[in-house]
Amino acid sequence: MKRWLGKAETTLGNHSDRLNAINIFPVADGDTGTNLYLTVRAAVAALGSVESKEAGSPEGGQARPEHANDVGVVLAAAGRAAMEQARGNSGTLFAVFLCAMAEPLAGHGRLSAPLLASALHRAQIRAWSALSEPVPGTMLSVLEAAAQAAGEVDAAQNGDDSNHALGLALDATVDAALRAVVRTEEQLAPLHDAHVVDAGGVGMLLVLDCLRSAVLGEELQDELLDGLHGYDVQDPHIHAALPDDEGVEVMCTIELSPLAAATLRQKLDELGDSVIMSQVGSVPAPGNGQPGDDHDDDDDADGIEASYRWRVHVHVPEAGPAVAAIRSLGEPSDISVSQLALPRDPDASESHYPHES
Predict the structure, then answer these.
(1) How many Cα atoms sit within 13 Å of 143 on the Cβ side?
(2) Which of 21, 74, 137, 329 has the smallest set of CB atoms within 10 Å of its CB?
(3) Among 337, 314, 321, CA closest to 130
(4) pLDDT, tens digit, 9 for 90 and up, residues 71-107
C-alpha cells in the first residue's frame, strides 16, 4: 500500500500538466492533475508521519502487532488524510476511493484477487453515492469498469487467493479502466466536442496502474496512454480556450448527524452543483461513550443522535449562501473558497512535482 501510493504521487506529479490541459468537465478550470497530485501527496505524508511515530515509540520502534501488517489500517490512515486535505472534485473522489477500499481490507496482511474485487466494488459504490448527481463518462465510470473486471476475474478463478490470480485481476482491472477512459469521450458532450478523454478518468487509470506495478513488482506501462485523445504533449492546454466558469468552489469538514447531513446535501443541491459529501469518520455525540469507541447505532440510550465527520464540496455562484447553509447546521473546519476560473493552488507549479529520470 505504501509503495502503491508513493508511485501514485510520483506518477500524478509527472502527469499533472497533461491532466490539467484536458480538464474541461465539470468545469474547464485546468486543475484536475494538480488536485489529484496534492491529495495523494497528503495521503503519502500521513503514512510517513505514522512511520515516524512508530519509530519513536517506547516499544523500540515496533508498531502494534495487530496493525503492523494490516493493509486496511494503512490504507485507512492514508484515506483519512486524503479526505481532510482533498482538493476539488477529483481529489475528493480519490479520497472517497481510498477510504472505501480500506474497509474490506481491514484485518488482512496482503492483497488478494477476492479482496481486490471486494475493495473496488465498495469503492465504486461509495464514489457514486458521494455525489448528489453522479455523471457517467467520468472517473466514476472508470472505477466502475475496473471493479466489474476484478469481480469477473475473481468469479472465474473461484475465489483463488494466490498471487497468480491477483496478477490476472490487476491486469484485467487496468485493461478495463483503459477501455472506460476511451469511452468517456463519447459519453460526455463537452469531451466529444473538444475531442478529449476525461482528465479524472485518466488519473484513476494511472492510480490503478500504479497499484498493479507496486503489487506485481513490474514497471509502469508507459504505452498505456498512447493514442488517448488530447493527451499528446504537443497539444495546447485545451481548457484555456474555453470560457471561464463563473462561481466558486466551497469545501470544508464538518460534524453532522445523518439527518443534518441529508438536510445540508439538500440545501447545497438547491444552491449549486457538483455536490460531494462523504463521511470521514465517526465522532461520538455527547454522552455516547468514550472517544474512539465504535457505535453500531445512530442513537444512544438518551436519544442523542451520533454525529460524524463529513467532507463537503460544492460549486456555487456565490460563497455566502453556501457557507451560511453549512454554518446553520454546525461549525465547519478547514473551510476554503476558491474561484473556479482561477488555479486552486498558485504555489503548486510544475517545479514542485517529483520527476523520475
Answers:
(1) 29
(2) 329
(3) 314
(4) 999 999 999 999 988 988 899 999 999 999 999 999 9
